[in-house]
Amino acid sequence: MRLLALLLWSVTACAQGPNVDPPKGPAPALGMTLPHVRLHDVRQHPFDLMKVDTPVLVINLWAFWCDTWKQQLPQLRELSTQQEQLGFRLVAVSIDGAWGDVFWEHCGEKGLPFPVLVDGRRELATRLKVRCVPTVLVLDRERRIRRVHEAYPGNPTVLRSIREVASESAE
What we know:
By secondary structure, this protein is α/β, with parallel strands linked by helices. The chain is built from six helices and seven strands.
């Protein structure tokens, strides 16, 4: 019940935020190929999503101004423990680029067990037609979008999507 309340709140509270004009129309299109966009991690190191070499790529797009990221962190940490076993890579992408002490307090000095990238100009989010945050995309080896979840649906749903995409890719 708590998860359902969190999901409903995230959809209504975080659909739009400061200085965000989300695209109108449908969610990111299934089958759309991930655009090549230059991103960097929270420590300013370049990161190329196209060079991630796993059968499945999970991208969690979020924004610092949307406090649901704080509730998502434990779930994302747990999800990341299954990356090797299930053959996927989890990458979080902040669409606002706003960082502060609160982020580091929640993540700890070592950071997170998955990359956290910054899309401060919203280039990736715009090209993917992301309408709200959080949005979770599950992509296949060719980096085509195979599943879209607007609002974090919880780990069981994300894991089901990962397994489905991995299975479809193996066929």
